[in-house]
Structures are given as C-alpha cells and as structure tokens.
C-alpha cells in the first residue's frame, strides 16, 4: 500500500513537473528594418523556430546606382529576430537555388563554436538546421561568416537578434530597427550603373557609401520613421561594419538612456552620441517633447553628408514653445544629403539562348564584374597567395575544358598558376551555360590573354561529366 502510493506519488510528481514547464513551440515573427517584432509577453521559455533564407539580389544602393547584395531575407539588413532569455532557438537557414555562393550565419547571441557558422554552412539549394539556447539577454549582431568573410559582410549579410531579458525592459510607445553599414564600390559615390564590390577599397577601409538600413535614403524622406510628441521611442541600433565604428547621433534630441554596446543595463543617461562598434550594437531611448524632423547621423560627419549616413525621425504634434521656438531647417539636410527618393529596381530582362562572340564579350564583361572581380580583381591580376590571376594565366591559354570545369564545379586544393602556388577555395558558380561561356570568352580575350571563344555546348559537355577534371593538379 505504502509502496504503491509512493509510486503513484512519483508518477504524479513527474507529471506535475512536466505540466509545469511545457516547452511550447512557436514560429519567430521576423520583421524588416525599420520595424521590430512585437515584445514577447510570455513568462516561460519556449522553443522558437526561426526560418531565414539567403539570396543574392540586384537592388538600388543609391539613385541610379545598383549593387549585387548578398542578403538574409532578401533585404539589407537581414530580418530582426526577437526571442526571450531561456528560449531554445531552432534555426533553419535556406540558401536560395539561384545563389552563386554558399552562406552561413554567425549569431553573436550563440554560445558555441563560430556562433553557429559551421553548423549552418549551406550551399545553394540547400537548408541547414541547428539549435541553441538563448542564455544571454542583449542585442546582438548576426552575420554571414563564409569565406571570404569580409566580402560576405561587405555585400550586406548582417542583421540583429534581440534576446529579451527575463525581466522585460520598460514598455515604450515605439521601437525601431536601425542598422549602419558601409559599401565599397569600384565607382565613386554616386557613379551610376551596377557597381561591383571593390576589395581594394574594403582592404583600405575607405568606403564610398555609409548607410542606415542598406541604401542611401532607406530611412529618409518617405521612408522616415515616425512618432508623436509625448511618446517614448527605443532604437535598436546595430553596426554591420564591415570596418567602421559608428558615432551614432540624433540631431536635436538627447538620449534619455543608452544600453551601451547592446547590454541589458541602461547604464548611461543624457547621452548625445553613442559609439556602436563594428559587429556590435546599442539601445537608445528617448521621449519626444517637440515636433519636427530629427536627423539620425553617424557624427563622423562626412559619412553623413557625403556618403549617405542620414536617417530621419518625423515627429508630429503640438509645438511647445517653452522647449523650442524657432523654425525648422530640415531642408538644409535634405539638400546636402543628396539622393533620397526610392527607385524600384529594374526587372531583369529575359536572356537569349545564343549570342555572337561580340555579344558574349559585352555580356561576359558585366558578368565578370558582378561575379568574379571581387576575388580575381579588375584586371584579372588576382591577389598574391589568395586569388590566382586570370590575366596571362598559363591555365586559361592551355586547357579550356579544365577552365570551364573550375567555374562549373569550383576548385579546392593546391594549384600552381604562372609558377605561384595557391591553396584556397573557389566556389562553384551557379551560372548558366551561356553565362559561363560568355564570362570565359571575355576572360580569354582580356588582359593580354591569347583570345578564343567558349561555346555553351562546350560548357554543357563539361557539366555533364563527373567533376574529375577539377581535381587539383600541377601544370
Ligand atoms: Cu554569405
């Protein structure tokens, strides 16, 4: 009798313990900047499923300027992810089949090797899954960490994840997501057309563009964030870098509280400018007393007025002449800030199936700039010990089939080009037969190479074969 009741007590207890902490499952609400998902009101941890897709898209960087962005979720910055301290996050990263590069994710909120990078490495057309416990509350940056890491970040692969503390931060009227980052382009600021990434400028850390939320004007004019007099606002500010530190400032307001570096402590009050490190964050709170347009800047001020780092907060409501009397001057900033309208990205035209050699040369030139230049450089000269030259390469002169194979299948392991050794990874390029034929025809006819033409049929033949022809070999 006694035993039996002990047993049932035990079962009862186990049942009770389970019933006390049922780990509910929910799908994370993801938002694009400047929106922030609603506050989590749960008082218990849950399993939260996060689904993010990586894509490579051509979009507007500034008026008349396009750029091939590598993205989390189709936009820069990537989606804002919100979870609660103690949650079990099940992360699904899918890489769109049209991507040319593999991608992964390193979330600074993860306790574990690479912040999830190795576990989330995903080739085009694949999905990866890993889980982590959100042990540490705070505002964290996430970014792609696939080699070459700098290039993946420079092309737009970053965003913010907020791990809400168990004891929630005070409620505010409005929350916004602002992320600063820089772009390094072949052309100078404002130079029109599709601008390729410049490895040279990225290495010297002199960007052409410094922007909030991914493009010039993404947070200005019609895209400005808004609030009313009397409301409280919280800005979740991130810095994707890849290189610069932001001196984040809101012209005409004083931050009542700043959680420096994105920690959970509102550790400073009455702040004019707060530093946001590359790969770091800050949370700024303030109350609005008067109406008008308040300008967000990186107070390294040439970045604001000459490179794009301008955002706007439009505040409506009654004037309070005891707080501020005088006329607004936002037109000054508009004039100096330059391009702020939004122009929708042009649709991609349908590709023909065959081309003449001269059409291939022109098409190949564009493809080279968008797909190869960042690694093999503008004159095909490569970078010593990192990226082999395609200019005057003995390779390219001698063996078309092998060259095609490298682009179709990728290449890994030690190779010797023009007597210099390279031992790195060339990603398999997700290009069509005609695209590969065009880009290689362009390469063969550029920078002192000996000419010739590659046809789509040749590429198709190589594609049909097993990838044996790209095994590392000396030549
Ligand atoms: Cu990536």
Q: Which characteristics define this entry?
A:
single chain; 475 residues; alpha/beta; six-stranded mixed sheet; 11 helices; 23 strands; 31% strand; globular; disordered C terminus; binds copper (II) ion
Please, could you describe this protein's structure?
The chain has helices at residues 2-20, 149-154, 199-204, 301-307, 330-337, 357-371, 373-376, 394-398, 400-409, 433-444, 456-464, and strands at residues 25-27, 47-62, 65-72, 81-84, 88-95, 106-107, 127-133, 138-143, 158-164, 174-183, 193-194, 209-212, 225-228, 232-241, 246-251, 255-259, 268-271, 273-276, 280-287, 292-298, 310-316, 411-417, 420-426. With 475 residues, the protein is of the alpha/beta class. Strands 1, 2, 3, 5, 7 and 11 form a six-stranded mixed β-sheet that branches. It has a six-stranded mixed β-sheet with strand order 12-10-14-19-16-17. A five-stranded mixed β-sheet has the order 13-21-20-15-18, with helices on one face. α6 packs across α10 (433-444). The longest helix is centred in the N-terminal third of the chain and has 19 residues, at 2-20. It is globular, with a radius of gyration of 26 Å. The protein binds copper (II) ion. Residues 70, 101, 103, 144, 146, 152, 157 line the site of copper (II) ion.
